[in-house]
Amino acid sequence: MTIPVGYMFKKVISRPAWLKAADVDDIFSLSGCVSENFTDYISYWKHNGYWLFNSPSVMEKVASENNLDLDGMTLFYYEVFEEQFDKNSRRWSTFEPELSFPTNIEEPKWARLEGYDVTTFTAGASPECSPLSCNGLAAGVTVNRHCLFESFEQAKTSLEAGKFDHSEPGPFRIFAVYTLGSRPGIAPGRRVRSQTTQCRYLCSSAARTRATVSAGVCATCATKAASSAPVSGSTSTLSLSASAR
Predict the structure, then answer these.
(1) Dihedral (Cα; 51, 56, 57, 58), 10-degree rounding
(2) DSSP β-bridge partners for residue 192
(3) How far apart (Å, rounded) are the C-alpha atoms in residues 187 and 45?
(4) Could you report the per-residue pLDDT of 209-241, keeping only the tens digit for each?
(5) The model's pTM
(6) Alpha helical stretches, state H, the chain
(7) CA torsion through residues 216, 208, 212, 8, sign
(8) Cβ neighbours of residue 226 under 8 Å, at least 6 residues apart?
(9) From CA 61, how far away is CA 107, in angstroms rounded?
(10) What is the CA 201 to chain-centroid distance, rounded?
């Protein structure tokens, strides 16, 4: 399952020459090492318990009060897999947000899923390195044009197979990386997400796919039920792509 963790404005840059991954156009990594964050934000102490921001408006206020220019910045939204991977023990374990910071994330109504990043959290606080870009691992694994894994399964399998063992100390967390626009227009054929309701049957489809649900029933369960007996309120349309949920 992935959980919402927050937002960040970033200055996206094109693939640097030292990153030998010809299929990569630009860097959408969570880490600020290559495509930098809008500012060294931690010193303002406005971030949430996941060391990101609860809403874009919080960042906009920080920028306004400190004369920071957001022109040309890309607005990102992130979700994270609920467990982190330790390369030494080869085990997954849960983690929690820092409780001393308020965490009340405003989920976007519309966002575009760009891919999945793997980021290190050695200190257990703010995001550190994204080895696909920071350590150049994208040169040796399959990534999309934004230097991200195309699927959650690819990210998880790569971690468990040792692809990240010689990059950074870890532990490693998997993030779903989304971009947002000023309006809900999404490019045709791109995967999108919106606010959702979980299927009341807690089926395997609902665990993998987030859906806009009528009467609390996902499209898969509604279809199965309709094949045997009418189900009140079973009509549903999927508006989102597969994710780690």
Answers:
(1) 10
(2) 112
(3) 35
(4) 333 333 444 454 444 444 444 333 333 222 333
(5) 0.76
(6) 56-65, 131-134, 152-160, 204-208, 219-228
(7) positive
(8) 234
(9) 18
(10) 26
